[in-house]
Specification:
alpha/beta; Glutamine Phosphoribosylpyrophosphate, subunit 1, domain 1; Rossmann fold; 2 domains; 4-stranded antiparallel β-sheet; 4-stranded parallel β-sheet; 12 helices
Length: 349
Amino acid sequence: DELFDVLVGLGQHPKEKADTVTVLEKVGHFLDEEVEARFRDFKEQGHENHEISDLIAQNLDVEKVLTKASEAWDGGYVMGGIIGTGDAFIARDPNGIRPCFWYEDDEVVVAASERPVIQTAFNATKSQVHELEPGEALIIGQDGATKIKQVRPAAERTPCSFERIYFSRGNDADIYQERMALGESLVPKVLEAIEHDIDSTVFSFIPNTAETSFYGLVKGIESHLNQSKIERIIGLGKSPDPTEIKAILEERPRVDKVALKDAKLRTFIADDGARDDLVAHAYDITYGTVERHKDQLVVIDDSIVRGTTLKRSILRILDRLDPKRIVVVSSAPQIRYPDCYGIDMAKMG
């Protein structure tokens, strides 16, 4: 509504209030202003009309157009456009809510929300793929030359957690390390939940995307165990029994793939009525991995939104293994605010 009112104030009359329409109208308005100003300048310099079109195309100030057009934009966006002059642009929001990476070589300039897809498609190294910083615009001239311009002042950086947890490719170097760290950060809480009884605990993950966070969790448990091993070996004295040392060194977390999921079936985007049935077909368990009524089962989940799938279906599936206790931990940040990606946040809690 605010963008619509701004456009009306500028003398524009957009057909509807959709974001795409209002953004296009605003860019178009200031593009028209820029073209008219250039036309007047070149006319005053004595150029003929048939010359001016080419001169405008060669001297169009795309940075100025984007700076004026984006003044009232807020929220998360990465938007691109191609102008009739042959110029093109990619602009990112000032808070860096949405991610954007770009790459250029002698033949192409490309931008995408994820770095790995560019690396794979163009066989590029991480250092060759650049991040478009918050508030910046990548402007590609009609001659193929690129330049980075700050069209909006960078504000507090507030990246969308959904973007990184749900939509980012796990093979991105930074995302991989982040997910590992998120898993490792859970170690103190997990040890508390299992009362430090690592020997009688099986560690696993669900769904498949939680595997990276799971590696971080296991790495943290192993570090905890290693410190314990050092202390216990020292405690054996100056002439320890090799058998005792061997027994201590062989201790390690019990890791198993307890839950199996059909990667083709996405359950969190299904409506409530269909989700339970979908989960029943999407998940299965590996029998024999848990000693019945004796072992605890720790499962890390990287993507809990409302927990509906977890409560209604996954816990029941895991309970078929008859563990003494099921501990579910999440490596995803809490979802505290409505999200713009279409998740049904009205039913949170």
